[in-house]
Amino acid sequence: KSGANGGRMVFKNGSSIQVATSFRSGTVQRLHISEHGKICAKYPHKAKEVKTGTLNAIHQNAICFIESTAEGVGGDFYTMCMRAMEQAKSGVELSREDYQFHFFAWWQDPKYRSKVPMNGLIVPKVMAEYFAGVEKSMSCQLDDEQKQW
C-alpha cells in the first residue's frame, strides 16, 4: 500500500520496508532521515516529532543515517553534528549508540567538474573569495574545472 506520506512493502519471508514522513512506536531497524537540517530550520514541530518519536523507535542494533545540509547554526541537527564532532575529537571510543559524523564536500566528488571554456575561467570576486575560503579551511586545492562547475 502507498500514499502521499509513504508506503509499505511486505516480502514473502515476512520482512517489510516502510517509507513514511515519521515513525512512532514499532521497532525501526534501518532508518534514513533526509534533509534533517532543513526540517529543524523550517519545521521545528516536525523536528520535535522526529526526535521524540522516530529516533526513539530505533532498535538497539539499528543502523541510522541522518543526512542534510546544515541550514545554519542551531536546531537539533546542528546540535547532533556538533556533539558527534566533539566526541570524535575527544578520542573516546564511540559506542553503537553514538552518532558518527561524516562530511562529504562537493569538491570531493570527481563528477562535479565542468570543462573550462576556450576563453578561460572567469571567476566573479564573490566566488573567488568562496574558493579561497574552501581551500584554506579544508586544506585542499581546487582546479579550474571544479571552479567552473
From TrEMBL:
It comes from the Bacteria. InterPro entries: P-loop_NTPase. This is Terminase. The lineage of its organism: Bacteria, Pseudomonadati, Pseudomonadota, Gammaproteobacteria, Vibrionales.
